[in-house]
TrEMBL record:
This is Clan AA aspartic protease. Pfam families: Asp_protease_2 (PF13650). GO terms for molecular function: aspartic-type endopeptidase activity. SUPFAM superfamilies: Acid proteases (SSF50630).
Length: 141
């Protein structure tokens, strides 16, 4: 089993605890994602998915992913490749929410925009270990 180490960024939101961010590559573009161990699955921002996959989307009024953030409309799509460090996940079946308000909140406090939430589906599949001391995410493939 190969270990892939991905750097994390710890940010503080209004002295109310910290959030871990990880860089992801989707559609050959770098974006920041919140690492959310409480989310059952990973989700991407709806506008990002619509911009790149508008012809292959499935829209649903059901909530198909449980995260800290809620929505009324979800989009299902397949992302050709998601990169987390050297880990490349091919044909990733995703759900997309409108994460604009989440992203705006981060930006108001001087942090980068958020385009994704990395949740339990990816973390479990790749046996993720968060190293808080060294601020790294270790994934096993």
């Amino acid at each position: 089993m190969r270990t892939i180490t991905v750097p994390l960024k710890s940010i503080n939101l209004q002295d109310d605890g910290f959030h871990l961010l990880v860089e992801v590559v989707v559609f050959k573009e770098k974006h920041f994602a919140v690492l959310d161990t409480g989310a059952s699955r990973s989700v991407f921002d709806k506008s990002l998915i619509e911009q790149h996959l508008s012809e292959t989307l499935q829209v649903s009024e059901e909530i198909n992913a449980a995260t800290l953030f809620t929505t009324t409309t979800t989009i299902q799509a397949t992302i050709p490749e998601v990169g987390l460090g050297l880990l490349k996940i091919k044909n990733y079946e995703t759900v997309a929410f409108d994460l604009q308000s989440v992203s705006e909140t981060y930006q108001q406090f001087g942090h980068p925009p958020i385009m994704c939430i990395i949740g339990g589906d990816i973390l479990m599949q790749y046996k993720a270990i968060i190293d808080y001391e060294n601020l790294t995410l270790n994934l096993h493939k």
